[in-house]
Every structure is written in structure tokens, then in C-alpha cells.
Amino acid sequence: MRPQDALLFEATPRHDLRAPARWHGRGRWSAWGYLLPATALTTVLLLVPLARTVVRSLTAQDGPANYAKVMADGEVGVWPALLNSAVWLLLALVVCALGLGLAWLARDVGPRPKALLLGVLTLPTVTSPLTAGVAFRLIFDLAPRGTANALLPEEVLFLGPGWIWLVLGLAFAWQWTGLAFLVFHVGLANVPKNLLRMGRVFGAGRLRRLRAVVAPALFPTAALVMLIVLTAGVRVFDLILVGAPGSIQAEVDVAGLFWWRHQGDLGEGRSAALAVTLFAMAATVALLVLWRLRRDWPEAGRRPGPEPPAPRRTRASLRVMTAAVTVLWALPFALLLLTSFRSPEAAATSGWWTGGYGPAGSYGEAFGDTSFAGALASTAQRGLLTAVVTVLVVVPAAYALTHERLPRRTRRLVAAAVVLLAVLPFQVAARPLGETLNTWLGSTVVLSFVHAALVLPLGVLLLRNAFTSVPRPVVLRPLAQGRSALLRVMAECGPAVVTVAVIAFVLAWNDLVVGLLLNWPAANQAPLVMLQQSRQFATSAGALAAQGVVLTAVPALLLLATGGWLIRGLTQGVRR
Predict the structure, then answer these.
(1) How confident is the model at residue 25 (pLDDT cuts 50, 70, 90)?
(2) Residue 550 in contact with residue 366, Cβ under 8 Å?
(3) Is the pLDDT of residue 330 over 60?
């Protein structure tokens, strides 16, 4: 921060965005009792497999030298894969900045354009990475069916080998910018207007106020968004499998994908060392976020009122920019839908503008052998069970972390562990977990518990913020009457509880990695059926588009049904 910007921020009236003071619980042992289910689940399914992987990396094969040897030049592809993983972590930060920029620009566009932009930007967040990879590959395909290739053949071909990074980077940004936009949009509305008024007194323009006043005030909100997007960046896997043609996937392999391809070649010790190294990279970034945050997650208080409207000419320019962003974000969905209504032959050989449409399109081929339909039912069961288990475990754990009876150091240690588990790549736990569960892996119930363990840390962070924001009198009243306050707190934080359930369902519904690493090819899951179909992308583009549309429809309808609750759950949490 420049000296004049630091002076501006210091002179601006401060506003405490943190949650109000916590209430006292019924004692330390009661808090530990609430933490017990979550502790048991994460210990069995995440911490013990993680410990076994660490021990294996230090004892198997070459012992501690596994870390040096896996990084040696002889292990071709490890260093590029690790560097590619670091690129995805940096891209996650860029996505957060893009979401903040769009939220800042959209402040003065009016309620209707803003609502449309919010809906279009948020929808990709619940879209499967497989579907995103298919959509953007159809746009940037170098074959004649590629939209970009048809419009700009020379320019696209000029990109050469780097074009795949453009495809994957845009697909990732398309998926996750909407979440950052949503949270920052509400966060900006809650920045006190005194902050902005003082910025104008100091003669700061809009961009300088954004950098020197708004961004520091929004950092606690940004930390939560960063953790979510960083988790997505750490776990990038299926987007590369589908979005990149097989002939050039090695150029963009991340460490997790490289581990899956080469764990047999690396050997037991070195593959474990690579998995631990990937986790260490993610944990370092997450701990930096946690160190910078240092305090509680913020609560979004009352709306302080918007900044005075921009001049008419500025508002017109912003509306044009908003319309352009809305069209660009809707384009992948539109092209995916158009391709799904073309015949399989037309979709494989030509672009959407050449015709070949029919009432059945490629849906007949997508559901031709009934495997996809059966997989949808199984995937729905897994998602619903994951949502139920997650809520049952996360609610008491988050409630326990709002007690002041737990020592401050204990709360900080638990919070740090939760943040680290939130960015845990599943490759670290997959092999020991698969050896332990063995024949049980074919069960939907077992997979659902694994998914619940993976989404549990994020759910605890979200609900802890909401529970801490409940006014003290609301909690003290049932305690004074000898009743548990947990049900009362849950009622006040209904939007946040619904948000956790929806996130758990969507992540389980869209997940490819858990089924692929634990019980492939026995797993009967819709993303795995799409993965098999994608191996013949040149001839199955239509069927893939149809399957992608169907796979997106369920979470999209869920988003439409619970949209208002999700917005409050992500940004406020407490019933208003």
C-alpha cells in the first residue's frame, strides 16, 4: 500500500465488521461433546489416512530421501506438475480479484441488470468441472466445430501449444468468479458510507477508494472466498481430464493428476511424498490467509446505504459493460444447450451454426444404454445422504466453536486445523483409505461419508460465522429456561444451514475424484460415465453436451429454489 493510501485508510473512521461478543456455553466438556462427531469422522476418514501417507513417505522405499528423489530430474514431469499446481493457486487469487472488480463495477447499474448479472455469474458455480471442460472445449476446439476456430482461425491457431491454458483458465474463472462476485457484492453494500465519504474528502477516485479503503475493509470477507476458491484450485482434476485433449494433457498436468497417472511408476514411498508435497503447498497458502485474517470471520450487518449514484454517463457505460459480461458468461451454457439438440453426427463433424437440429438431438445417444440414467439415480442418492450427514455433523461442531468456555488457544488450534483440512487434496488420503475400506468401497453410504468428511471443514467455517452472529439475548433465553440453545440457534441461522446442505449435495453430485480414486471402475456415478464418454470426444461431443446439460439441471434447479437462502447463508447466515 502506498504511503498516501495508508494515511487515507488510517484517517477513515473505522467500522468493526466482526461478529458480536460470544455467549457462554454450558461448559468445556459440553463443547467437546458437540465436537466429538466431527472429530471422529475427520479422524477416521482424513487424519489417519493423512498420517499413514506421511509415515509411508518417510519409511517406504528410500525413506526420507523419497522427497529428494521424487523431485530429481530423473522423475520426468514432477516439477512441471508442481509448477502447474502453483499456477492454479495463483489463478484462484486472480479469480477473487476479478469477482471483486465486477462487484465494484456493478454497484451503480440498477437492480434489474444487477439481478440478471448475479444469476448468470452464480450458475456456473454449481456446474460440474466436467461440464465446464466440455463447454469450453466446444468453444475453443481446433476442429471445424470449434466456435472460436470458425470466427478467428488464424488467431486461434497462432496461440499454438498455449491455447490449452487459455481454455482451462477461462473455464476455471467462469466457474468460480460468480461466487466471489456474490460475496463481494453483499460485502460492498455493507461497507459503511463514512468510509467512502472520507475517501472522497481526501480526493480519492473510485479505483483508489477501492484499493485503499474498500479492499482492506473487505479482507475478512475475502478470506472466506479465497479459501473456497483455493480449495477448488488445489483440487483441479476433472477439468483437465476433459478440457484438454489427451495428446497435450501432460503439458498441463497438475500434481494431483500426475500422482494418479504415475503412482505405480513412482513407487509407494515417492508417490506418498508427492501427495504430501501437494498438501504442503496448499497448506502454506491457507495458513498465510489464516495468519492475515487473525480474527473471527465477519458478519454482514445492516445495510449502511449505497454510495451516491454515479453520473448518468458513467451509469450508461457500466450497464454496457454489465450486459457484455452477462452475455459472455451465458455463452458457454447457450453453446452447450445448442450442441445437445443436434444429432450426434452433426455435433461431431460441424459447428452449431450449420444446423443438424432435431427434437431428440443427442439425448437419445446420451441415455441409449441406460448406464447414464442409472448413474444419475445413484449419484442423487449419494448427494442426498452426503447433505444429511454433513448437516448432522457440522451443526454441533460449529456450535461448539462459538463457546467461550473453550480456551482461546484451543479455539485457534481447532480453527487452524479446520482451515488446513478445507484445502486437503484427496490424493493424500486416497490410497490408505482405499486399503482400509477395501470391499466396502462399492457402497453409496461409504462414499457419502467420505464426501461429508471432505466438505465438513468448509461447512464448519460457514456455520461458525453464522452462529457467532446470533444476538446474545436470543441464546440466553433458552439457557435461562434450562433448555438447549442449539435448536434456537439453528432456527435463527436457517439460511446458513440450508447453504451447507446445498453445498454438500452439489459437491457430491459433481464429484469425480472420490469415485475415481476409491472404486473405479465399479462406481456407478454420473461424472464417471461422462469421463468414459469423453475419451472419444471427437465422436461423442453431442452426447457429452446432452449429459452435461442434464448433470447441470439438477443443481441449477436447486440453486433456483434456494437462491435467496444461499445468498443470506453465504453472506449473513442469521435470519433477518
Answers:
(1) very low
(2) yes
(3) yes
Kindly report the CA angle at 190 between 185 and 196, in degrees rounded to 5?
A: 100
The mean predicted confidence, pLDDT, of the chain is 81
Q: Domain locations in the chain? A: 23-571
* CATH 2.40.30.10 for the 23-571 domain, yes or no: no
DSSP of 240-309: HHHHS-GGGHHHH--HHHHHHHHHHHH-HHHHHHHHHHHHHHHHHHHHHHHHHH-SPPB-------PPPP
Cβ–Cβ under 8 Å, residues 176 and 125 = yes
Residue 478, pLDDT score: 63
- Computed from CA positions of residues 30, 31, 32, 37, in that sequence, does the dihedral angle turn out positive or negative? positive
Q: What is the pLDDT of residue 402?
A: 79
Amino acid occupying residue 430: A
- Cα–Cα dist 235/213, whole Å: 33
Nine-digit cell at 392? 448432522
Q: What is the 3-state secondary structure (H, E, C) of 102-155?
A: HHHHHHHCCHHHHHHHHHHHHHHHHCCHHHHHHHHHHHHCCCCCCHHHHHCHHH
User: Between 472 and 452, whose confidence is greater?
Assistant: 452
Distance from C-alpha of 309 to C-alpha of 318, rounded to nearest angstrom: 12
Tell how far CA 151 is from the center of its chain.
32
DSSP characters for 192-244?
Answer: -HHHHHHHHHTT--HHHHIIIIIHHHTHHHHHHHHHHHHHHHHT--HHHHHHS
Q: How far are the Cα atoms of 32, 39, 195, 328 from residue 155, in angstroms, in the given order? A: 61, 54, 46, 19
Contact 452, 37 (CB under 8 A): no
How far apart CA 38 and CA 446 sit, in angstroms, is 16
Q: What is the pTM of this model?
A: 0.87
DSSP3 helix / strand / coil % (the chain, rounded to 5) = 80, 0, 20
pLDDT tens-digit readout, 256-280: 999 998 888 888 999 999 999 999 9
* Residues 176, 234 contacting (CB under 8 angstroms): no
Calculate Rg over the CA atoms of the chain: 24
C-alpha 143/C-alpha 150 separation (Å) is 9
pLDDT at 23: 44
Q: What percent of the chain shows pLDDT beyond 90?
A: 35
